[in-house]
Amino acid sequence: MTKPLEDFENVSVYTIDEERRETLLARGNEAAITWSTTDGWPIGVMHIYVWRDGCFWVTCTQNRKRVPALRKRPQSSAILAFEDEQTITAKTLATVHEPGNQHEGWFFRALAERVMEGQPPAVRDQGIDGFIARLASENRVILQLKPVKWISFDGRRVKAHAAGLWQPGEPWVEPETRVSPGAPTVDP
């Protein structure tokens, strides 16, 4: 029998498992990337990212204040929010890849493919190569953020627990694959 949810004191039991995390990160688009200023203040900006090889990859020009900050203090984080109160935070270590680095070819193409659909017609008309040409700059760096720790929260699990449908410690079945008793089954 499922023990009902009594309070919200320990929400650390409502985490996102690794497989779900990978699915969310692969289809996600934006993350808040954070770093610290010289006087110790945490700060961040939203970045469109590419998730590849277990890292977040973003780009900006060297004149952005985050670049020298991350060179000096690579401790950083990526914070993402998804539907149904699913959140992921990665404590990361940043590497700044200088202009002309070996990652530009694959990364610029992956970024262009990720964002092309939402671009204005004048940009879409120039295609992927046109978008890549806009990124090409002797001043553009690529930031690689490698996760060293994960913090996640799955609001769907809280709701399932409160409804008596799931108990922390039990296996979690993704809602789109969950079958209610007596419901017809559908082959994927």
Account of the 3D structure:
This protein is of the alpha+beta class. The protein has a domain at 11-99 and 137-168: Roll (Pnp Oxidase, Chain A). It is 27% helix and 31% strand. It is built from six helices and seven strands. Residues 179-188 have low confidence and may be disordered.
Span between termini: 30 Å
- Beta content: 25-35%
What would CATH call the class of the domain at 11-99 and 137-168? Mainly Beta
Query: What is the CATH architecture term of the domain at 11-99 and 137-168?
Result: Roll
Runs in which pLDDT lies below 50 for 5 or more consecutive residues are 179-188
Q: From the alpha carbons, calculate the radius of gyration and give it in angstroms.
A: 20 Å
- The number of helical elements comes to 6
The average pLDDT value, as a whole number, equals 90
Oligomer: single chain
Largest sheet: 7 strands, antiparallel
| CATH homologous superfamily classification of the domain at 11-99 and 137-168 | Electron Transport, Fmn-binding Protein, Chain A
Shape: globular
Number of strands: 7
Structural class designation: alpha+beta
